[in-house]
Amino acid sequence: MNNNTDEILIKKALENDSNAFEQLIKRYQQNVFQICMGYAHDADDANDLTQEVFIKVYKNLSKFKFNSKFSTWIFRIAINSSINYIRKEKIKKLFVRIDYEEVDKTLKANTKSDTNILRAEEKMRVRTVLNQLSTNQRKAFILSQYQDFSNKEIAEIMQLSVKAVESLIFRARENLKKIVLKM
Amino acid sequence: MKCDSYIEKIFYYKSIDSLTINEKEHYLQCDACREKTDSYFSLFKIIEKEKKVKVNPFISTNIIAKLEEAPKIIDFKKAILSYAAVIIISIFMGGLGATYFANNTSLLSDNDVISQYFENDVDDFYVENSWLNMNYYNLEN
């Protein structure tokens, strides 16, 4: 079944063949995970997001009309799910009640491990920098940095021209420069 | 090398390894530029680190288990169509039944009922009495 094309696996999955769908998951799980990681910057959250993406893919599989590559379609779902996740996180932060005792306990627990602090700082830093990019600049930047996709592939996923993607990546780098120089 | 031209160039690289000899010299000599360079490249270092993180190896098994646990997906289009079909069939069957009964049931016509009132020739006999008390007629006679 490993050699089957996406099209064959999709048709089998639509006939309720769970093995075929599992093959599709295995084929794209790492790519989807990396896109999610580009937004979440946390392995647990990225794993949850990856699961969410594949469940969405399964539920909407009958809507996939083979007009584009299956991978392109999955990656689009991954990006949209990740953006929704970021929005939900922002809203959650607005409404969450700060339990100072809990924060204190967490801080004390975290100070025991230097690597945790470093990791948290790195996460904060990359998140702060990337959050300052526009949605499209961020999409293009994550696809080029986390996936090493070519501008043509990014253009297909984002449904833009190659020129537009080149311009987005250029502007993303220009903005990163400004952000880093300000820091 | 001047700081401005150095800074302009480094933003097109991803790591210190990409610097030219002149740029590397400037990097080592200028503290401010070194700080900016390190800060910028550290971002890509974090990204590289994040890229190396592997997905949970059991994720496909987890997803399949979740999908099998979940109730079957309701296809709303199909559901609406099947409800519509049931309603249309019910209306059609109702119409068909009504037509059948209208044609095949021998009901007492209005004329028959009226004739019992107006064509009654027996004095002191009212058809209502006959309906209300069937024995009335027999007692009188």
Average residue-wise pLDDT of chain A? 86
Overall helicity of chain B: over 70%
Q: Strand-residue fraction of chain B?
A: under 5%
The gyration radius over C-alpha positions of chain A equals 19 Å
Task: Report on the architecture of this protein.
Chain A is mostly helical. Chain A is built from nine helices and no strands. In chain A, helix 3 packs across helix 4. The longest helix of chain A is centred in the middle third of the chain and has 26 residues. The radius of gyration of chain A is 19 Å and the shape is globular. The model of chain A has no long low-confidence stretch (mean pLDDT 86). By secondary structure, chain B is mainly alpha-helical. The model of chain B has no long low-confidence stretch (mean pLDDT 79). The interface between A and B is medium-sized, with 35 and 28 residues.
Notable traits:
heterodimer, A: 9 helices, B: 141 residues, mainly alpha
Short description:
The complex is a heterodimer of chains A (183) and B (141). With 183 residues, chain A is an all-alpha fold. Helix content of chain A is 79%, strand content 0%.
Topology, pairings included?
The complex is a heterodimer of chains A (183) and B (141).
Chain A: H1 6-14, H2 18-40, H3 43-59, H4 70-95, H5 100-111, H6 114-131, H7 135-145, H8 151-158, H9 162-182
Helix pairs in contact in A: 1-2, 2-3, 2-4, 3-4, 4-8, 7-9, 8-9
Chain B: H1 3-10, H2 21-29, H3 31-52, H4 59-69, H5 76-104, H6 110-118, H7 127-132, H8 134-140
